């Protein structure tokens, strides 16, 4: 109950403070991709229930019908700013501010045994696994077989981190994770901005 009250209160405050900025980002994503600036995708939530997650659109359809991440899209992803619209998911009750990241069907919904404890909580905008793998896209880009590496190395580690988070949950740790996420995102944004000067 305390976690939900905190999620609801902070998401409302953040949307009131930064809703205008999110709308500007959505407009920028629309100009960048020539598609609706908000991207929606089905993800697996608490108890295996599917819901639609909101993100800033970062990919553009190319003439050969391939989807490519745009230059601005790379910035959204590197800085995690593409996750800002998920404050709406928190407001709607589909997500929490902190928790295991929601995945597409075929991963978390296929967990067995005590690993399924991950489905007992709401997924989060950020979490211990998100911080641990903050450079996940860069890490995968270095692999000869990214899908195999994700399934055999990254995914098992995420499961381990998320199970530990749930088993050792505390409100204090949630606050620390949020602060670390903000610092990480701000630092990445600053470095990305400097590199484009």
Topology:
Layout lengths: L1 H32 L4 E7 L5 E7 L2 E3 L5 E3 L1 H9 L6 H7 L3 E3 L25 E3 L1 H5 L3 H6 L4 H22 L3 H25 L2
Parallel strand pairs: 5-6
Antiparallel strand pairs: 1-2, 3-4
Folded structure, characterized:
The chain is of the alpha+beta class and 197 residues long. The chain has one domain (2-191). Helices cover 54% and strands 13% of the residues. The protein has seven helices and six strands. The strands form three sheets. The protein has a two-stranded antiparallel ribbon with strand order 1-2. Helix 1 runs antiparallel to helix 3 (86-92).
H and E string: HEEEEHHEEHHHH
Strand content: 5-15%
Overall 3D form: globular
Number of helices: 7
Radius of gyration: 17 Å
Secondary-structure-based class equals: alpha+beta
Strand arrangement in the largest pleated sheet? 1-2
Unreliable stretches: none
Largest sheet: 2 strands, antiparallel
Counted beta strands: 6
Give the total of domains: 1
User: How confident overall, as mean pLDDT?
Assistant: 90
Question: What's the assembly state of these chains?
Answer: single chain
Distance N terminus to C terminus?
Answer: 46 Å
Family: Belongs to the bacterial sugar transferase family.
GO molecular function, one term: phosphotransferase activity, for other substituted phosphate groups
Pfam family, one: Bac_transf
InterPro entries: Bact_transf
């Amino acid at each position: 109950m305390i976690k939900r009250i905190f999620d609801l209160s902070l998401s409302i405050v953040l949307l009131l403070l930064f809703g205008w900025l999110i709308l500007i980002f959505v407009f920028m994503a629309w100009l960048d991709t020539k598609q609706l600036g908000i991207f929606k995708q089905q993800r697996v939530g608490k108890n295996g229930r599917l819901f639609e997650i909101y993100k800033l659109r970062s990919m553009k359809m190319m003439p050969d019908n391939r989807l490519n991440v745009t230059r601005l899209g790379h910035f959204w992803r590197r800085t995690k700013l593409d996750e800002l619209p998920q404050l709406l998911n928190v407001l709607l009750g589909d997500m929490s501010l902190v928790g295991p990241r929601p995945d597409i069907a075929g991963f978390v919904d296929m967990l067995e045994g005590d690993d399924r404890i991950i489905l007992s909580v709401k997924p989060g905008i950020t979490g211990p696994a998100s911080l641990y793998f903050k450079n996940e896209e860069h890490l995968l880009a270095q692999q000869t077989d990214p899908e195999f590496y994700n399934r055999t190395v990254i995914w098992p580690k995420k499961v381990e981190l998320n199970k530990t988070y749930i088993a050792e949950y505390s409100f204090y740790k949630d606050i620390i994770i949020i602060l670390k996420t903000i610092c990480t995102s701000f630092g990445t944004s600053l470095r990305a901005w400097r590199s484009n000067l």
